[in-house]
Amino acid sequence: MKKIEAIIKPFKLDDVKEALNEIGVKGMTISEVKGYGRQKGHKEIYRGAEYVVDFIPKIKLEIIVDADQANLVVAKIKESVYTGKIGDGKIFVLPVEEVMRVRTGELDKDAI
């Protein structure tokens, strides 16, 4: 099994959700996060004063899938968030040793 974490622009969330539903992804966890990478924040003007926004709002997706489905999920995420502009995001793929559904005690593939 694999855990896929993706940091994306907030306005792309619906596009990702639709794309993943089409390929049968059953669930995901979504968090509102803030951070920066090469983008290094940006400047805004508030009441005539310019200030720097160091941390940019993003969405973090966490998805657990069977290892054989991971490449397809990554491809669908990339396809649905790509704009070609700085800040499109990052996708991380990590190994998962075990998953347990608390309510039923199901393990691994049955628990996803």
Topology:
Elements: E1 2-8, H1 13-22, E2 29-35, E3 42-46, E4 49-53, E5 56-65, H2 70-81, E6 90-95
Antiparallel strand pairs: 1-5, 1-6, 2-5, 3-4
Helix pairs in contact: 1-2
Report on the architecture of this protein:
There is one protein chain. With 112 residues, this protein is of the alpha+beta class. Helices cover 20% and strands 36% of the residues. It has helices at residues 13-22, 70-81; strands at 2-8, 29-35, 42-46, 49-53, 56-65, 90-95. Helix 1 runs antiparallel to helix 2 (70-81). The radius of gyration is 17 Å and the shape is elongated. The model has no long low-confidence stretch (mean pLDDT 90).
Supply the key terms.
6 strands, single chain, 112 residues, alpha+beta, two-stranded antiparallel sheet, four-stranded antiparallel β-sheet
Pick out the low-confidence regions.
Answer: none
Distance between the termini: 9 Å
**Structural class of the secondary elements?**
alpha+beta
- Biggest sheet overview: 4 strands, antiparallel
**DSSP strand tally:** 6
**Fraction of residues in helix:** 10-25%
Count of separate DSSP helical elements: 2
Strand percentage lies at 35-45%
| Inertia-based shape | elongated
Strand order of the largest sheet: 2-5-1-6
The secondary-structure element order is EHEEEEHE
Radius of gyration: 17 Å
Q: How confident is the prediction overall: mean pLDDT?
A: 90
